[in-house]
Amino acid sequence: MLINFTPWWAVSGVASLSWGETKRGTVSTERVVDVELRWGDSDAFAHVNNVVFFRLLEEARARVIPTDGPGSTILSGGLVVAEQQLKYTAPLHYRTAPIQVGMSVDHIGGSSFRLACRVFDSTSGDVYAEGFVSLVAYDFTLGSPRKLSDDERSWLTA
Amino acid sequence: MLINFTPWWAVSGVASLSWGETKRGTVSTERVVDVELRWGDSDAFAHVNNVVFFRLLEEARARVIPTDGPGSTILSGGLVVAEQQLKYTAPLHYRTAPIQVGMSVDHIGGSSFRLACRVFDSTSGDVYAEGFVSLVAYDFTLGSPRKLSDDERSWLTA
Amino acid sequence: MLINFTPWWAVSGVASLSWGETKRGTVSTERVVDVELRWGDSDAFAHVNNVVFFRLLEEARARVIPTDGPGSTILSGGLVVAEQQLKYTAPLHYRTAPIQVGMSVDHIGGSSFRLACRVFDSTSGDVYAEGFVSLVAYDFTLGSPRKLSDDERSWLTA
Amino acid sequence: MLINFTPWWAVSGVASLSWGETKRGTVSTERVVDVELRWGDSDAFAHVNNVVFFRLLEEARARVIPTDGPGSTILSGGLVVAEQQLKYTAPLHYRTAPIQVGMSVDHIGGSSFRLACRVFDSTSGDVYAEGFVSLVAYDFTLGSPRKLSDDERSWLTA
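^ inputs. structure came back:
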């Protein structure tokens, strides 16, 4: 599947994907997804491990980007994580109730976009971590970043 | 063990741990640790998954911070990850030879320090990811950040 | 928390926990729990990795054993996994709909019990894996297996 | 890569892969592989989690089966895990020194073989877990189990 893979970062024209402070809600509204924790997410300190938070973000993306209809080519057309950051703001303990992951596009370029993210509890308002993930639309067959289509840009900025 | 846990971020006096661009080697020399990959680190794209890179950083810290002698209280005295970031610069595939994780302190505060990190191949020089991890020395018994001791500062700046 | 830990297997009186073929539903009815998959559960073959199935079983146990009221001391009183087995019967692919984990006690001893387990789709009836997990009630403070109480036995055989 | 995937268990002629008690060293000698633990392998009980042991077995297989020369088609020709079991015999704690995984073929069929496995410390002789993994040689292109070649049988029984 990745036979012709050429890394996006080897292709000119994709500049740095860090654009300063995240600004939740500036380009799109925030989409919020329920993600379930697992008991096994906890480390020896009995907290959800810091690494796992990035797994929660990944899972939230897998659940928010549509697999059919408008916006569905964002993932199916090829997408790679270019950069990500999290600041941990409260310890999170295992519970059976899902936590919430909020994502809002706060920057969109020709071939890339950035999601301002937070892991939080929508009932209490407690925020456990916040940061961003920068993603590049990438054509694995051609081996280069691909332009975001009008349909994709429309979905990303809604 | 965490009965009296109070998050460091709820305690005044610990400012933001993002201090702009990382500057490898400005406070300490770079320590380089071998970390072994696992076949299971790869995701459905047959690359080492982006989340796993933070696991590699965690493992490198577990292996570089001493468990005896000078500097050993850094970990045994309590340490929490406050913030971390990675920029992915090349795809990494499973191999049996270990990869290298380089860590150098590029900022040190009263109770915290930041490690400029990179995941790379010391033979080829290829860099797969680079970024930073900010850590806070934390007294879990007292439930507050703790001052880095002279011994700890000495180890961190060597 | 595990300061006085003494392994159950070092204590006489706990015999082998393999009791031949599993017999779903012989001691208790089958309890079925929804567990969500994660995109990151897939390995380089784009299937949910064989190792992850044991994580799904663990999560199902964490969700089926009560944290309050009858049966709640099963977990809070100390419980360790002694042995487990799975036979994989169909490939499982990531999907956003939860899969189901069925568990029924098919053996109960003085300090231990065995769960016949299956990972399946309750709608289609497809079974992805089946096997068992043997667990030992263990008093971590005393450092020895503990007798299952009448309340616990009652919950386990319901 | 798995476009034509048809599960081996749907194909007649592959019988049950449980052949009673494992007998280490009956078909092949035991091959022993070093595998490194990760701090993150520990769960909230501060032990290497039971699920992770299967990851250690997977990693040991990835490191013992050759990628070039005799036996190398075992993995490259397609291989799936059909069944696996572990009995946990001692708690394992994180350490920087690698643990050892021993594997010896104790049954070999036309298209499948079973590895008697143990996770142990070769210095102290302590055994943390033992069990087996049954594997099926599988041609993903044809979508069916494939016969083990003479070269493969020779490697497996050495």
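The first strand of chain A starts at residue 31 and ends at 35. The interface with chain B takes residues 1-2, 5, 7, 9, 17-18, 45-47, 50-51, 54-55, 58, 80-91, 131 of chain A (CB under 8 Å).
thumbs up if we can close this ticket
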